[in-house]
Specification:
By secondary structure, the chain is of the alpha+beta class. It has ten helices and 14 strands. It has a six-stranded mixed sheet. It has a six-stranded mixed sheet with strand order 5-6-7-8-12-9. A two-stranded antiparallel sheet has the order 10-11. It is elongated.
Length: 377
């Protein structure tokens, strides 16, 4: 039997498309290694791959390739659980309750633009949102001498922060927890330092984890602020993406990783994050039942790091209450949702949204409202 060239073309494209879709949907179930990093790149590309697959399905239907269309449709059904993580469809409404509280997680990229001695719009967004708990990543543990003194507006906002959030804690690195409620701090893991990452003001990088316990009503809840290792863009990648940092802007201190190719750096990022996620997960397995884990995962929903941290006992606040695809990272043509809020225990998420009204960091804040249910979920 001879096959037409069109038959071979349609079949080949369909098979490759299905393979890419399934790999993107479930590649995060595979432990990252330096040999399979392309699989995890596909996971990052799931939104794009899903759109392309949907368009291809329509093409198959239009040209009446029913058998191939059916196979693509089945693949879509199989991928739906992962697609719903990045594109949930919920029409939840905010609930008013005396037992409610709000958590804001925000990578502020060093609280820019204090470098230019201007009021920090990130700081003002935190004040405006007025969440009960604010989990901040990438803020220096000290501001350069003279910045507060030369910017009255920034000094005033800092005073308002201290008044609005009387309970604050910061580790030796880049994480801050601010709370309206008194809390006790727990140490989860010792920082892991390394010289092959570029996501640090101090020329070195480690993952940061900070947890604290707070009592809301009659319930004791543990909140965990986390910041996992970033990809660490090299000069060549940044040139390819046409990334240019202005003097004093976050990212300007990044340096080339000499002796390492872009593929090595990309592969290493997945591997490093996987180890960090497993370490934190081992702590979560013995942590209190009522717990919220949020922050900058530097990876998307469905990734290995995300799946490891979520496990079988955590719920994703945005996938349960959000609507449509969103991104919390919005620069360098890389529009991904890499900030997450996971939770378990005596609470339920009733709303979760990304606030894009402020654009002074490479991340947008993610704000989630919870209500106490007194039932372990």
């Amino acid at each position: 039997m001879k096959y037409k060239a069109s038959d071979i073309t349609f079949t080949t494209v369909t098979v490759l498309g299905i393979a890419a879709l399934i790999a993107a949907a479930y590649g995060g179930c595979v432990t990252p290694s330096r040999g399979n990093y392309l699989l995890h790149v596909l996971v990052l590309g799931l939104p794009f791959i899903a759109v392309v697959a949907a368009v291809w399905l329509l093409v198959l239907l239009l040209v009446r390739r029913w058998n191939l269309a059916s196979i693509v449709a089945i693949a879509f059904v199989c991928a739906i659980p992962s697609i719903r993580l990045i594109c949930p469809i919920n029409f939840s409404h905010d609930e008013k309750s005396e037992n409610s509280f709000t958590v804001m997680t925000y990578n502020v990229a060093g609280m820019y633009p204090y470098y230019k001695k201007k009021p920090s719009l990130a700081m003002r967004k935190i004040l405006e949102t007025n969440a009960d708990f604010v989990m901040i990543q990438e803020i220096p543990h000290h501001l350069p001498k003279g910045h507060y003194e030369t910017c009255e507006a920034l000094e005033e906002d800092s005073a308002r922060i201290e008044q609005q959030y009387p309970y604050r804690s910061q580790n030796d690195d880049d994480i801050v927890i601010m709370s309206k409620y008194p809390f006790t701090t727990d140490t989860i893991a010792k920082p892991i330092f390394g010289t092959d990452s570029l996501d640090s003001f101090f020329g070195k990088y480690h993952h940061y984890v900070l947890a604290f316990n707070v009592t809301i009503g009659k319930e004791r809840i543990t909140l965990v602020n986390i910041h996992l290792n970033s990809f660490g863009l090299t000069d060549s990648i940044r040139h390819m993406l046409k990334i240019e940092n202005k003097p004093g802007e976050p990212g300007a201190t990044y340096a080339t990783k000499k002796g390492k190719s872009n593929t090595e750096i990309l592969a290493n990022a997945f591997v490093v994050r996987s180890g960090q996620a497993r370490e934190v997960r081992s702590w979560l397995d013995h942590a209190p039942a009522n717990l919220i884990l949020c922050g900058d995962f530097n990876d998307t929903a469905g990734s290995y790091a995300y799946r490891t941290l979520r496990g079988n006992d955590m719920n994703d606040a945005f996938s349960e209450t959000g609507l449509g695809p969103v991104n919390t990272f919005g620069k360098y043509f890389m529009y991904f949702k890499i900030d997450h809020v996971l939770y378990r225990g005596c609470m339920r998420a009733v709303s979760s949204y990304v606030d894009k009204s402020v654009n002074v960091s490479d991340h947008y804040p993610l704000v989630t409202k919870f209500v106490i249910t007194n039932k372990t979920k």
